[in-house]
Amino acid sequence: MDFEALIEKVKNIPYGRNSNRTDFSLVISENKGTCSSKHAFLKDFANKNNIPNVDLIIGIYKMNEANTKIGSILKENNLDNLPEAHCYLKINGKVTDITNPNSDFEKLRNDILEEICIEPNQVVDFKVKYHQNFLKNWITENQIPFTFEEIWNIREKCIQKLSEQSQY
Question: Domain residues for 69?
Answer without folding.
Answer: 3-165
